[in-house]
Amino acid sequence: MEHRIERIKKHLHAQSYKLTPQREATVRVLLEREEDHLSAEDVYLLVKEKAPEIGLATVYRTLELLTELSIVDKINFGDGVSRYDLRKEGATHFHHHLVCMQCGTVEEIIEDLLEDVEHRVENEWGFLVKDHRLTFHGVCRDCQNKN
To answer: I need a surface site. Which of 43, 55, 72, 129 has the fewest CB within 10 A?
Structure first.
């Protein structure tokens, strides 16, 4: 974890930002709960346990800054709630998600499934793709087995 915090600190410094104690507390929560897709409120409640003096607005600002700097990805699974996902170290693209419409679980697909599609979009439409997001909505294996 300390290695990733140090890399994030360097990334922030390269963009003329500091890793303040409030930002570090937020990053630590995201690292500790990396498998979860936390809302800003979820992050706030977990940060508050570590640093009670931090306010919700500070957490929101921190998450937005981290999103702008591509350290964190802001995602929405169609339920109206923005969630935050720490970008995998060295990842050039956002990863994909499988969202179960019955139990609400979210699985991640780290493999880039759209490389060929990106090349086609760039070649046929002359559109320079910077990133993409793919979310599949369906029924997970566990829910299928229950039925």
So the answer is: 55
